[in-house]
Amino acid sequence: MQLDLNLLTALDALLEEGSVAGAAARLHVTAPAMSRSLGRIRRTTGDQILVRTGRTMTPTPYAIAVREQVHELLHQVRGVLAPSRELDPATLERTFTLRWHDSLVALSGPALLAAVRGQAPGVRLRFVAESSTDTPELRRGEVDLEANANRPSAPDIRAEHVGETRLVAVVRQGHPLTRARTVTAQQYAAAEHVTVSRRGNLSNAVDDALTRLGLTRRVVAAAPTEAAALEFARGTDLLITVPEITTRTAAAGLGLAVLPLPLELPPAPVYLSWHQRYDTDHAHAWLRALARTALATCGAS
């Protein structure tokens, strides 16, 4: 079989964009040219790759199965053919997928996007929501960069500590705790709480710290994001415990009060994580540097 590497590039774009028009725009070719490439790919593989479902195109099971392999092969080919090419962000055409904690997207996402647009107008950032379960998208190449409080344990996942922040208590203005000169651990524990957990956990490290003091708290709800949790505090006496840097501005905008946490807890870390396949990827390294700067500039340090 005579192989055409252009088909690999076209297949990667089709699987990434999920449409002929999107893939054509990404590779700067016409839609008819991309449609012809899709036809050649279908004849070569014996699979439809993308099938129409209503107004959209859906990848076939085969396409889903080979997506990571295609992406990895293309990355390897580029590394072989241009191992020492200097990166020129101004001419870079690439879509990066980032899975960041929602509060970090709100805090540092705008600064990162502004930096990217200023240097590389052909680069697009796709922020996706965190999952409620641990998922292998970094390993599969479906996510380029993660940012959250979790340090991955897998040996093929790189993790860089880029910052940390202390935890604080957030309540409504006029909450009984706002009238205390100093909030004690007992007063904190006596309040009713809402936890923040995308998995719906009703307990966390705060409960461990209270247990060491012989105290317990009543958690009445778990919210999947900090933004949702803060809404519970408006107009009620519920208390939310969250990282300070990602919450102070939002809390002020909602008319909420931020109080020191009367517990001995380590600061919440912030990690950037990526798969080791991107260690020598110049474009990925460029993005990591911008993300590191955006997080540090916005206070995650």
Characterise this structure.
The relative contact order is 0.15. With 301 residues, the protein is of the alpha/beta class. It has a 5-stranded mixed β-sheet, with helices on one face. Strands 9-8-10-7-11 form a 5-stranded mixed β-sheet. A two-stranded antiparallel sheet has the order 1-2. 41% of the residues lie in helices and 23% in strands. The protein contains 11 helices and 12 strands. The model has no long low-confidence stretch (mean pLDDT 89). The longest helix is centred in the first third of the chain and has 21 residues. The protein is elongated, with a radius of gyration of 23 Å. It starts with a helix and ends with a helix. Helix 1 crosses helix 3, helix 1 crosses helix 4 and helix 2 crosses helix 3.
Core attributes:
301 residues; elongated; five-stranded mixed sheet; 11 helices; alpha/beta; DNA binding
Strand and helix map with partners:
Elements: H1 5-17, H2 20-27, H3 31-45, E1 50-53, E2 56-59, H4 61-81, E3 94-100, H5 102-119, E4 123-128, H6 137-140, E5 145-148, E6 157-165, E7 167-172, H7 185-190, E8 192-196, H8 205-212, E9 218-223, H9 226-233, E10 239-243, H10 248-253, E11 256-260, E12 268-275, H11 282-297
Parallel strand pairs: 3-4, 3-5, 8-9, 8-10
Antiparallel strand pairs: 1-2, 5-12, 6-12, 7-10, 7-11
Helix pairs in contact: 1-2, 1-3, 1-4, 2-3, 5-11
